[in-house]
Amino acid sequence: HDILRSAAHWQGLAQPVQVVYRHAPLPIIELTLDAASDALPQVQAQTDPRHLRLDLQQAPLMAAYVAADPQSATCYLALLFHHLMSDHMTLEYIVAEIQLLLSGQSERQAKPLPYRNFIAQTLAIPAAAHEAYFREQLGDIDEPTVPFGLL
């Protein structure tokens, strides 16, 4: 999938661009767990996205963390995605594809569509059409919609 080989670049450019690389190896980081503590909380703590960062200019915008539970035969996989490349629906799709691969049914995977098709479709709609749509949808709002009384 193109999005899994993408990065964002903006330095020295008039506007940010998404670059799709031919190859973008997935970083796989092996975690070490303490045998004296439960494994899952350790994996969760070591892969907490509040403490980890992904470089937007380095494809892929994701990383895999693996850990073996020293108390059992359980292995853990934690996937860290940047929100620019994945949402909940994308994650469900990726997990479904992983399950097909693990069950030996990779031939059932849908053929991915090139990202350039999406870009071409997006660019085919004039910016004025987008603006007109949102003006029609939001034109009757005459005051800020700020939550929690922040204004």
From TrEMBL:
The organism's taxonomic lineage, starting at the top: Bacteria, Pseudomonadati, Pseudomonadota, Betaproteobacteria, Burkholderiales
Organism: Duganella violaceipulchra
Bilayer-spanning residue ranges: none
Entry GO MF terms: catalytic activity
Protein name: Condensation domain-containing protein
Domain Condensation: 1-138
Pfam families: Condensation (PF00668)
InterPro entries per the UniProt record, alphabetical: Condensation_dom (IPR001242)
